[in-house]
């Protein structure tokens, strides 16, 4: 019997490529709607496509839509979580700028508990300022004393509560609050000294 023999691997790659081309625009719109930032949306779609290709590229083409949607949702969720945490950092630190009072018994996150999320301007200038501020925050975090840095990152990056942070650090909840308060005051002062207004 003669005939055209199709390489299954090549056929699968072709199906994957066709699927990704077909879903790209819809995925971008979905990500842009959720993230409200075209660059972040493009990154999310590319990340999701890469993860589908690397981890599930050998799966039957019929499974691609469900797998891709799940991956994209996870990528968007992770991006939103990072945005939320970073926005919390900038809001948190801004609440301490100009405040010379050192109150080590207060947890800085309690300050924000009752504050509503306000829509942030998404202009190119606002994005630039946010990027600049975050880069400065990250540099200053590296300069914190180890225990303050550890407490700060667990609370505001990992989003661990005070009890979880205290257990992980092997210290009291009061110590966690003190470390976080001092770290926040130090970061706020350092940013103010650089002329960064949050």
Question: What's the short story on this structure?
Answer:
This protein is 72% helix and 0% strand. It has 198 residues and is an all-alpha fold.
The proportion of strand residues reads under 5%
Q: What about the largest sheet? A: none
Oligomeric form: single chain
**Share of helical residues:** over 70%
Shape type: elongated
* Parts with pLDDT < 50 across at least 5 consecutive residues: 1-5, 98-104, 108-120
Give an overview of the whole structure.
This protein is mainly alpha-helical and 198 residues long. Helix content is 72%, strand content 0%. It has eight helices and no strands.
Key attributes of the depicted protein:
single chain, 198 residues, mainly alpha, 8 helices, 72% helix, elongated
Element layout with pairings:
Blueprint: H1 8-35, H2 38-56, H3 64-94, H4 108-112, H5 124-143, H6 146-156, H7 162-169, H8 173-193
